[in-house]
Amino acid sequence: MENSNERVPVQAGLFNWPEEPHGLIVSKCSTCGELVFPTQDYCPECCTETMETTTLTSKGKLKSFTEITAPPPGFKGTIPYTVGIVEFPEGIRIIGLTTENTVESLVPNMEVEVIINTAFADDEKEYVTYKYKPSK
Fold first, then answer.
1. Nearest partner of 87 among 132, 29, 34, 25, judged by Cα
2. pTM
3. Is the model's pLDDT at 88 over the cut of 90?
């Protein structure tokens, strides 16, 4: 049965959506080049307010991952789930959910792509977030 609820991001400004290809939105310091996720107004590296918004490429390499079987308080998603740290070609590493429920199909340095997928739903809305999906 298809969910007919309104689809909304879990938080605005994390990823471009519904545009494709999907990419994570970061701040880049025009003074020192530091990349920051999620976006912010000041650079944590050189302490200037010279941040510009840019979107990362949609593919990266899975550097580390783990399976979560005991979720944090308030978690509304499916259990078990996996999280991973992905390194993007631009040089930043970002943690996020993967599309896999267990770690069996994940391997270090595998290529993954950013997709937009359901995080959870309630009676009124379907909340979407970015996830890392193994590239085939």
1. 132
2. 0.90
3. yes
